[in-house]
Amino acid sequence: MKPRISPSPWSKIFVRTYASHPAKARLNQPTDYSSTPLLHHSAKASLANKELPPSASKGTTSRINLFQAVNAALTHALRSDQRTLLFGEDVAFGGVFRCSMNLATEFGDHRVFNTPLSEQGIVGFAAGAAMEGMRPIAEVQFADYVFPAFDQIVNEVAKARYRAGTNEGMNCGGLVIRMPSGGVGHGGLYHTQSPESLFTHVPGLRIVVPRSPVQAKGLLLAAIACNDPVIFLEPKILYRAAVEHVPAEPYTLPLSTAEILKEGKDVTIVSYGTPLYLCQNALAAAEKDFGCSVELIDLRTVYPWDRQTVIASVNKTGRCIVVHESMVNAGVGAEVAATVQEGCFLRLEAPVQRVAGWSTHAGLAYEKFNIPDVVRIYDSIRSILEY
Question: What are its cofactors (predicted)?
């Protein structure tokens, strides 16, 4: 007989619980990315996008995930413009999330290359390259590590165009700073942060957060072509989770233009990035339970953001909820709420509500309790309807 081995007393301690959902949960179930209406599950649906140029809408699609869509955009940018450079920590090897996979092989180490472990150096070099007429794409390995480069971004990159006045060529146009952001279930203190609101206070920058592969490809190509420097935050949990049909041809999507993902008449939900999928799950349950109609808006660009679309929607519905993963204090939701209060005051049926991350650091085991979930959004819909 084989000897009987008792289970280790530590076995229960090391069971990973961060990605699980409560037993018998009705609302906080994992998002089914294979059926969510926020993704294009057929070529026909993808090519029907009215924002696509004819060259893309009449072409073909490939079913890819978000990191592959980013890779496709980077590939086209490097092929179409010799001024385009791509660099960052481990970029030549494909990057932590494989977004730059095979690019160094195709374009050589003079255009796709690794940098020292210095975010300040990465962004400082990018600013200098942009001022010399290049189109640099700098990767910060995680958004949590961007803070050493904050001085370069705020005092150099964002001010270059304003400072130049009428002097041509003295700007940082074409500079894109890419960074994975947001929670992934087990990121802890230094791999979970969403710092977009810190940059929305800075004139001269554009801050973009895509929700899907189609959006990532089109918005990234638009960012690279833009004459303003762009902070491009890629929700890391969506890199592999979000899969859809993406047009094979290159295309751009408009910056600073929100998209109405679902029309409604009773409540407007404004969000961006990963929380949009939670919003979709919550509003589907709320519409079934309460008989209401919810409008869902993706900001896409959180600065400068599309005030007109949001104001028009709230003037129609009379109620507004803003959802984001980053901390609630001085977040994007605060700016949206203030603008809605100013532009829709006489139409509001209830105070604007914010469902956001709590103002605390992200714990390793309890990250899921720190950021919005379906239940919190569902409860917000119910409370704003009953106000």
Answer: thiamine diphosphate
